[in-house]
């Protein structure tokens, strides 16, 4: 494995695609007992299509224990689905007027952060982050981001909230008084420059470290293509870093471990690399293989204890790796087609929300030219602890 390059430079769940059979919509609602997992899920299990408007779901986020799911749509509405109501019928908690770009739920489940486009003017056209209660009641507005928010997260202690936009800007605010406590850039003028349903930016649990994909271009790194690089940011450090691996493969997704000690990159051909955050050096890596022939991993998530890694492709292949057991702990599953938008670790496995990002091909609503979007699909895999 090649040693990464590292250069200093002056100084962020969830969406969906692909056709999902209409029969999924007709399946019966699961148990209304919130303490019971509503379905049993593996490659032969059931999936539940959630009710919602025929619009793109711009953001999806689970509550802390996976028993609630918030879905934000392009009309500005947010629906809350939960185990107690059988998941199916989402309660609208925010009528809204602007497309939802990002959602985050606090660790105690009492806070909801929402990123929406701010009013256009001649100076700034970026997103505004607002704080709400889970019932949708407004708490207050935070300062405006220069670009579109691609990562939004509460700190584990619930005292601060952070955002990363597609232009590589980072903001951290204090929840109590909504004051801005940190504002910086991972890189100047070289952000992601494209917004997708892939996980392309991430914070550590304390919001002290972050990673972003595609944060430089080949003008700066002529020997390494811009899409083979990530930018690393650390609070209190005046210079951010660009780190890349000469593997010849595009980095499709990246996250920081909850404790901030490592960052994980997913590359083409299903390669996953674990890297030391301080040095940027690769620690180890593996390829989980391919359930459905898709070579691009678009979703990554580590469990809070850093023991399990979840990765997924747009075609619905997901992998759960018990890192303590290395490759012997790897399990692969086939889920519904489409981007995995969010995931939550639950007692018996991992719960997922997929879909909602792409239209269903050329299909339109009868009598209109409005495209049909596939629904957000709720599903789960059971993973036995060894």
Question: Count of helical segments?
Answer: 0
Terminal Cα span: 29 Å
> What's the CATH class label?
Mainly Beta
Shape call: globular
| β-sheet strand percentage | 35-45%
CATH architecture: 7 Propeller
pLDDT below 50 for ≥5 consecutive residues: which ranges? 1-45
> What's the total number of strands?
31
* Oligomeric state, counting identical vs distinct chains: single chain
Global Rg: 20 Å
CATH topology: Methylamine Dehydrogenase, Chain H
Short description:
By secondary structure, this protein is mainly beta.
Folded structure, characterized:
With 386 residues, the chain is mainly β. The chain has a single domain (5-382), classed as Methylamine Dehydrogenase, Chain H, CATH 2.130.10.10. Helices cover 0% and strands 44% of the residues. The protein contains no helices and 31 strands. The protein has strands spanning 5-10, 48-49, 57-62, 68-73, 78-82, 91-94, 102-105, 112-117, 127-132, 138-144, 149-154, 160-165, 169-174, 180-185, 201-203, 209-213, 229-234, 239-244, 251-256, 262-267, 271-276, 282-286, 297-302, 308-313, 317-322, 330-334, 340-346, 349-354, 359-364, 371-373, 377-382. The strands form eight sheets. Strands 1-18-17-16-15 form a five-stranded antiparallel β-sheet, with no helix packed on it. Strands 2-31-28-27 form a four-stranded antiparallel β-sheet, with no helix packed on it. The two termini are 29 Å apart. Residues 1-45 have low confidence and may be disordered.
